Amino acid sequence: QVQLVESGGGLVQAGGSLRLSCVASGTIFSINDMGWYRQAPGKQRELVASISSIGKTNYGDSMKGRFTISRDAAKNSVFLQMNSLTPEDTAVYYCRCRVFLPRVGDYWGQGTQVTVSS
């Protein structure tokens, strides 16, 4: 079993920054990719950013240029630096980890709230 623990959410003013962290623990030999998704009230969950095992990154359109995803493979951790935050970034942010070994699995964290005030 794999557990994901997110941290770093909170309340910030528009224009501010936050850094989210996620650590995956459990029986993990190889991870395909890790990423962040978000879900605002009344909206579907959407991709924020993802990073593959070889460091290839992918961002949602509204996050490009403002958010940066990074990864510490040795610690099974992923980070999201969020800059120039706007109230539209307010959402619950979820960490996702797709494991390859010892068995294929798709895991999600519990979510961390990010609130951006105007």
Give the helix/strand layout.
Layout: E1 2-7, E2 10-13, E3 18-26, E4 30-39, E5 46-52, E6 57-59, E7 67-72, E8 77-82, E9 91-101, E10 105-108, E11 112-117
Parallel strand pairs: 2-11
Antiparallel strand pairs: 1-3, 3-8, 4-5, 4-9, 5-6, 7-8, 9-10, 9-11
**Beginning-to-end CA distance, first to last residue:** 40 Å
Strand content: over 45%
Report the helical percentage. Answer: under 10%
Number of strands: 11
Described by the principal axes of the CA atoms, the overall outline is elongated
Protein architecture, described:
Helix content is 0%, strand content 61%. With 118 residues, it is mainly beta. The strands form 2 sheets. Strands 2, 4, 5, 6, 9, 10 and 11 form a 7-stranded mixed sheet that branches. A 4-stranded antiparallel sheet has the order 1-3-8-7, with no helix packed on it.
Give a concise summary.
This protein is mainly β. It has strands at residues 2-7, 10-13, 18-26, 30-39, 46-52, 57-59, 67-72, 77-82, 91-101, 105-108, 112-117.
List the defining traits of the structure above.
seven-stranded mixed β-sheet; mainly beta; four-stranded antiparallel β-sheet; elongated; 118 residues; 0% helix
